[in-house]
Write a structure and sequence with these properties.
Organism: Saltatorellus ferox
Protein name: Sialate O-acetylesterase domain-containing protein
Largest sheet: 12 strands, mixed
Structural class: alpha+beta
GO molecular function: sialate O-acetylesterase activity
Number of strands: 36
Number of helices: 11
Helix content: 10-25%
Keywords: Hydrolase
CATH architecture of the largest domain: 3-Layer(aba) Sandwich
Length: 644
């Protein structure tokens, strides 16, 4: 990108509108940015030159805030490179090496973020892929990966740059996005642009706008609270008092340790900084008291002082002569050096008592590296000498401090604001989404949250039919947790319910997961399966079947249940010696393994189970890590399900 103009120029474009970008072919493409209020902005594109036509030129006037936007029409991609020129009177931005093609937004958590560099070894070992399939030679695929960021309010811009997905520049590209792009690029023979905005371990609510996510009470409460705190995750003095008073009540006799008159002569000694392990308290989570005496110079009397301490893992309450001068209870306080003021009226010459109540809530506890000192201006006293310490109440009794919401990647709408809003309204052909693992604990909410997010994005892009294809989470042993043993199955069910929205598709992964790895390496097949939906729906291949067998109906036939399926072209097929992971519900409500048989000329499956005279319901793959034992004639696995 070339900027021509004067120092202090105000003409600005967002990072996604930059040299090397891919613009959606045959579309009305928004170009937007900032300029001086009232300035006329001219956008010129030269794609008409290839056919002897004059450049496309559009003018617009920046509004009172300096914002402007135009839409320019793009022709069919022919493989040429173009220039887009944006200018005001004194300034010009030239975008070079611009191509037209198909643009897709890729988002979600770590399985979408997972890079080509982390998947290539597995790809090379696959008997299903040729050297050409996984070659990173120039492939007319380009990617723009949004830098990680979060914000309380929508941002105007984000970090990132356009790269060719070839050689070393391909390695940081999303593997799922890349293999999707390879599949459709080979069919369409046009450039493919991937705009990748993803962050591992994130939930759907952080990718949803505040206006929409606030319809969900828990998320609305988090946003209201952080805004009420001015965007800061700090606790009020009232909240701090309430917490430490509760700790005092849990171990009432310990409150006397704060007093400057308390005799700690029988306590053990140490120096600061020190850890719980150093004190022989390895594995202990809870309170440890530290006390020392500071000899304050007479000349410091009546002066404001500053107490500096190393980070204290996790929290602390610090006292000067029995009066609290500071406390850190926020999340992340374990890594924060302490800096507390000692008010002038509390400073007298001679001996002063300094007491620290440290609270570790898990893992390593104690002081981190750094100096402990007391200072007045340029003068200071080293506090690393002798301290006395005593183990206090365990964390199970002390409890955990209140955790106010903070602006980070876990706050509802925070990633929408910083990593999605700056991309709107960049013209895209559709969306690819791989997420859900981090919403297992709220699977029931996901039934409404996920479709709300989809509609939210479509509304923001002003296209209620924007194609949205997503991946059902793969088999993985999550282990026991508070969310319940069927949380994964209910999350998958919630994902499947989102296909009731138009222009959606769900890529099934029940046969390409890894029960021991939440990040299965077979990203090329996931990308290919997403591409099947695009090829079928958008790119003129109605003969392609993108869906695996999906339950249509269940009919009781005596002591048997007959299941009928859609998307069974070529007939149902076993993937192993037996049909596994089918269950029937008995009269007492329990589910028992069922014997399954393919019937009805390959379109149905009949279930029966010993001791179940009249099955009440059936389910399939209703667990974390079970892998598909049935596929359709196209090789795609049967979708998990339960009957009602």
């Amino acid at each position: 990108m070339t900027l021509i103009g004067f120092a202090g120029a105000e003409l600005k474009l967002p990072a996604v509108l930059s040299s090397g970008m891919v613009l959606q072919q045959e579309a009305s493409v928004p170009i937007w940015g900032r300029a001086n209020p009232g300035e006329t902005v001219t956008v010129t594109a030269n794609w008409g030159e290839a056919t002897g036509k004059p450049p496309t030129e559009v003018n617009v006037q920046a509004d009172a805030d300096g914002h402007w936007m135009v839409k320019i029409s793009t022709p069919k991609a022919e493989g040429n490179e173009f220039q887009v020129r944006v200018s005001t009177g004194p300034e010009t931005v030239e975008l070079e090496n611009v191509v037209l093609g198909e643009v897709w937004l890729c988002s979600g958590q770590s399985n979408m973020e997972w890079r080509i560099s982390d998947s290539m070894d597995a790809a090379r070992q696959s008997p299903d892929l040729s050297a050409e399939d996984i070659s990173l030679e120039p492939s007319r695929i380009r990617h723009f990966t949004v830098s990680r960021a979060y914000a309380l309010e929508p941002a105007e811009d984000c970090g990132g740059r356009w790269l060719d997905a070839s050689g070393e520049n391909a390695l940081p590209c999303s593997a799922v996005g890349y293999f999707f792009a390879r599949a459709i690029q080979q069919e369409l023979d046009v450039p493919i642009g991937l705009v990748i905005s993803s962050w591992g371990g994130t939930t759907a609510q952080v990718w949803t706008s505040a206006e929409v996510v606030s319809a969900f009470p828990d998320h609305a409460k988090a946003l209201e609270e952080i805004r009420a705190r001015g965007g800061e995750a700090t606790l009020s003095e009232t909240e701090i008092d309430a917490f430490w008073n509760g700790v005092d009540e849990a171990a009432f006799f310990e409150s006397r340790f704060k007093s400057p008159d308390f005799d700690d002569g029988h306590w053990d000694t140490t120096s600061v900084p020190t850890s719980y392990d150093d004190l022989g308290l390895s594995g202990f989570d809870g309170v440890v008291w530290f006390r020392t005496v500071v000899d304050v110079p007479p000349s410091w009397a009546g002066s404001d002082l500053v107490l500096e301490l190393p980070p204290i893992d996790d929290h602390d309450e610090t006292f000067w002569n029995g009066e609290r001068i500071g406390s850190k209870l926020e999340r992340g306080a374990w890594s924060t050096p302490r800096r507390y003021g000692v008010p002038a009226e509390s400073v007298k010459g001679g001996a002063a008592s300094l007491t620290i109540r440290a609270l570790d809530t898990g893992g390593q506890g104690g002081f981190g590296a750094g100096a402990a000192k007391l200072s007045r201006g340029d003068e200071w006293i080293d506090l690393a000498g002798e301290w006395r310490y005593r183990r206090g109440v365990p964390s199970a009794s002390a409890g955990r401090p209140p955790a106010p919401p903070q602006v980070d990647h876990r706050l509802p709408s925070a990633l929408y604001n910083a990593m999605l809003a700056p991309l709107i309204p960049y013209a895209v052909r559709g969306v690819l989404w791989y997420q859900g693992e981090s919403n297992r604990s709220s699977a029931d909410e996901y039934r409404s949250l996920f479709p709300a997010m989809i509609v939210d994005w479509r509304t923001r892009w002003d296209d209620l039919a924007l194609p949205f294809y997503f991946v059902q989470i793969a088999p993985y042993r999550y282990g026991e947790g508070p969310e319940g043993e069927d949380a994964t199955a209910r999350l998958r069910e919630a994902q499947a319910m989102a296909t009731r929205l138009p222009a959606t598709g769900m890529a099934l992964t029940a046969d390409v997961g890894n029960p021991r790895d939440i990040h299965p390496k077979n990203k090329w097949e996931v990308g290919r399966r997403l591409a099947l939906f695009a090829l079928h729906d958008l790119y003129g291949h109605p003969e392609i079947e993108p869906d695996g067998p999906t339950l249509r109906s269940a009919t009781l036939a005596g002591d048997r249940l007959v299941l009928d399926f859609d998307h069974v072209a070529g007939g149902l097929q076993k993937t192993g010696p037996a049909l596994e992971h089918f269950e029937l519900q008995a009269a007492d409500g329990t589910f028992v393994p069922a014997v399954a048989e393919i019937t009805g000329e390959g379109r149905t499956i009949t279930l029966r189970a010993e001791g179940v005279g009249e099955p009440k319901a059936a389910r399939y793959l209703w667990s974390d890590a079970a892998e598909s034992s049935v596929r359709g004639g196209t090789g795609l696995p049967m979708a998990p399900f339960r009957t009602r």
